[in-house]
Amino acid sequence: MIIDYLRGLIFKQHRMSGSGNIQMEFAVQMRGDGCREAIKKALSDSGTVTVDTEKGSVLIETSAPWLDIHKRIEATGRRAVLTGFGGQSAVAIVDHGNETTNVRGVIRFCTLSSVPGQRGAVVDGTIDGLSSNGIFQLNVHECGDISAGCSSVGDVYDSSPISSDGSGRATIRYVNVRLDVSDLIGRSVVIAQSDGGQERRLSCGIIARSAGIFQNYKKICACDGVTIWDERNKSIEAEKRERDTVQGASL
């Protein structure tokens, strides 16, 4: 009963602070009016949408999580890659110190205002590998030193509750008025869980600067020379191999 009550408080908090529309930019493989209309229909209730078929770009201003928008675009049969997120943005790939938990995901932070000194950030992301229907903490820690995994990141700078669904996924989208995106670069994100009164750190990652809207025109990955679509396919294949490995180990 206490857990249900706490979960209710979390959902209430996220509904109350889940506003703060931001712009997202996706590169999408499409051609012609049919593609444009299919995408606009799929996103019709998600926000203000602009589709440029010549550039292969979908721009949306929304309060929905980026993963929800991505799924809706790809449900039309077209591949999509997130290429820009809001104005001043930062991102943490949360996949360190998780050798025993396999908890991993991506957390993005986007400024709410272009006014210097005005705080507030949209926190958006997905964390997988959590226990089902659980309550966790998304903690920002003081520093980005992960040389000793998640134990060397310093003290907690900010903390917010998150919850997982029945599949162990936490889909995150809320506004945190305490955060200043420019002050987050170089810090770290830790996903933690209370375990018998002790905090257990499940996974962590360094917060780095990321591309905002119209700041990422990359079509070829400088790291290995492949296109963003090849990178998309590699990510899907890697995710499938990891899922098959986990399933095989559980048999």
Automatic annotation (TrEMBL):
Its EC number is 1.15.1.1. It comes from the Eukaryota. InterPro entries: HMA_dom (IPR006121), HMA_dom_sf (IPR036163), SOD-like_Cu/Zn_dom_sf (IPR036423), SOD_Cu/Zn_/chaperone (IPR024134). Its cofactor is Cu(2+). Keywords: Antioxidant, Zinc. Pfam families: HMA. It catalyses: 2 superoxide + 2 H(+) = H2O2 + O2. Residues 26-78 form the HMA domain. It is an enzyme of class 1 (oxidoreductase). This is superoxide dismutase.
